[in-house]
Design goal:
The protein is of the alpha/beta class and 189 residues long. It has one domain: Rossmann fold, CATH 3.40.50. Helix content is 37%, strand content 22%. It has six helices and seven strands, in the order βαβββαββαβααα. The chain has a seven-stranded mixed β-sheet with strand order 2-3-4-1-5-7-6, with helices on both faces. Helix 1 crosses helix 5 and helix 2 runs parallel beside helix 3. The chain is globular and about 40 Å long. The protein starts with a strand and ends with a helix.
Length: 189
């Protein structure tokens, strides 16, 4: 079994914001593969199903972004999964809107949700799909407001395509070695 984690914030006020792009990728996978997100455990909403013959959990932590690991750590231990069985999908302000980048492991890059995962999984050795949401001016308050707001009309088409490509990459990761998935999806498009 493998686990695909989409990072975001629960609640309708955060739906379709830049910070919730991980939730949107989980929703895309849920709809495409008919995996209902109806289970709740360890402060996470999730569904269990099969994608291309691989058993998978699609997970949305309900702990808010900065505490995502508080849900993911116990859930992975409950299902006896390791960091190698996990991929996290999250927003990245260092990438242009609509660009996706896959990483095999690494630090948090300043992303508090990823930092929480690292803390609660006790490792940096897990795959990530970073979805570009662009970056505002450099003040801290501007960043907080930026990620908690939606996309402009001009950004909606590229972000929709990015959600589709990120969900395809996550599904490919289930059955194809990750370096090969990285090579395909990190290619400039």
């Amino acid at each position: 079994m493998k686990i695909i984690i989409g990072l975001g914030n629960p609640g309708s006020e955060y739906a379709h914001t830049r910070h919730n792009i991980g939730f949107e990728v989980i929703d895309e996978l849920s709809a495409k593969y008919r995996i209902s997100l109806t289970r709740s455990k360890f402060n996470a909403l999730f569904g269990k199903g099969t994608i291309d013959g691989e058993e998978v959990l699609l997970v949305k932590p309900l702990t808010y972004m900065n505490a995502s690991g508080e849900a993911v750590g116990p859930l992975t231990r409950f299902y006896k999964l390791t960091a190698e069985d996990l991929i996290a999908v999250h927003d990245d302000m260092d990438l242009p809107v609509g660009k996706i980048r896959l990483r095999q492991k690494g630090g948090s890059g300043g992303h508090n949700g990823v930092k929480s995962l690292i803390q609660h999984l006790h490792t940096q050795e897990f795959a990530r799909i970073r979805v570009g949401v662009g970056h505002p001016e450099r003040s801290r308050q501007a960043v907080v407001n930026y990620v908690l707001n939606g996309f402009t009309e001009e950004e909606k088409a590229p972000i929709t395509e990015a959600v589709e490509r990120a969900s395809e990459a996550a599904a490919a990761w289930l059955t194809i070695p990750f370096p090969k998935v990285m090579s395909e999806y990190n290619a400039n498009k």
